[in-house]
Amino acid sequence: PGDEVIVPDVTFAATANVVLHCGAKPVLVDVKPDTWTMDPEHVRLALTEHTKAIMPVHLYGHPCDMDPLLDIARARGLFIVEDCAEALGARYKGRLVGTMGDVGCFSFFSNKIITTGEGGMVLTRNQKLAERMALYRDHGMTPARRYWHPVAGFNYRMTNMQAAIGLAQLEQIGTFCRLREAIAQRYQANLDGVDGISLQPRAVWASPVMWLFTVLLPGYQEHERALVIERLARCGVEARPFFPPLHLQPPYATTSDNFKTANRLGREGLSLPSGISLSPEDIDRICSILLETITRYPAASLQEAV
Predict the structure, then answer these.
(1) What does pLDDT average to over the chain?
(2) Is-contact 11 243, C-beta < 8 A?
């Protein structure tokens, strides 16, 4: 309690929830327009004497610009907790995400790069921290003495069956990532350079993985994007909105208004079907329907047309 953890405004809510569940305060910062990930300059401005950690998120499979954040953390004695839930296999300047900070957290939910149905994985090089996490994972029960609890822990264990599924999935991660890259390239071939669509940027130093293929619809408002999603659904295509900025949601609301990029992404972002079972023909059809919608019904006229 009283500690502060810097969190990007654009992320799934779990990133901020874990801070709140510790009794600490998530301090939200804007993201960079050229990566959609945490802006190091905004992080510098958000630092206070209460700051204890920074939580970069490798959003939609694109790595965060880690070197500036690591420099800040070293200079201030802060922890770095990488949220890699959407980016298993992605690399930053050749380094795998989840291996650069003090802790790397991954999700194995059913829609992630690999899955165990639920649960996830935490990486650390700190042996004492690894032992403490293992203690808390199993009800706080020490292996040194049966049914003895030095701390009040949790039941965060993964079942053997889930672990077996995860290991089998891990053996195929190279194939999964190649399939996802092929899907991303097919989308890009259809949509790159199209008026009314902006693709997710890709930094020269990044080797991302495609978790969700997400585009922006420049100039659209949230209700107009909702109508695009509705029209796609009528044609049998499920699309989803971008994560709404956390600062607009009740548990994380803040008086700060310095979220220009986050607000834009929240209004304009659209995630398209991205499962590895998609065929090239599926992707072509999805793009055709999307292009027809935004070409015939630009933002200003969409509401009356749908």
Answers:
(1) 95
(2) yes
Residue 185 has a pLDDT of 97
Query: What is the SS3 assignment for the chain?
Result: CCCEEEEECCCCCHHHHHHHHCCCEEEEECECCCCCCECHHHHHHHCCCCEEEECCECHHHCCCCHHHHHHHHHHHCCEEEEECCCCCCCEECCEECCCCCCEEEEECECCCCCCCECCEEEECCCHHHHHHHHHHHECCCCCCCCCCCCCCCCECCCCHHHHHHHHHHHCCHHHHHHHHHHHHHHHHHHHCCCCCCEECCCCCCEECCCCCEEEECCCCCHHHHHHHHHHHHHCCCCCEECCCCHHHCHHHCCCCCCCHHHHHHHHHEEEECCCCCCCHHHHHHHHHHHHHHHHHCCHHHHHHHC
CB count within 10 Å of CB 219 equals 12
114-136 average pLDDT score: 96
| CB burial of residue 253 (10 Å; 0-12, 13-18, 19+) | exposed
- Distance of alpha carbon 263 from alpha carbon 12, whole angstroms: 15
Question: Which residues, listed in sequence order, are joined to residue 109 by a DSSP beta bridge?
Answer: 117
